[in-house]
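Bug #77: duplicate submission created two jobs. Keeping one. Sequence:
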Amino acid sequence: MLGALQRNSLLAMVSGLLLWTLYFLFNYAFLSLGCALGFAEIQVAGLSLVHWVILAVTPLVLLAMVYLAWRSWQQYRELGEAEAEPELVRRQRFMALVAVMIHGLAVIALCWVAAPVLMGIPPCL
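Kept job's structure:
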């Protein structure tokens, strides 16, 4: 699996969006099940149990996305330090930069999905 996340891999470029997709599916599936099974009515420290679970998962996924962006940025910088600029190195460097931007987009999308929970909007309206 880690070999697939090396530079010049499509999986390495879109792994942040894949993480966001899994987070999105988890968020809304757990929210729906929480409302159906009554987890949203259980209050802990002023927030529902559904909010607490989502708030526990969000930083973990965010940390993984930031790590992926940092790793892509490091690859971009390493490729920029190469003395020769053959076509292959320029292409690899471009792909690393695109991966950084895609991971940044995934972080923004994660914050957008987590915003209702962070604002304290009731889970079951």
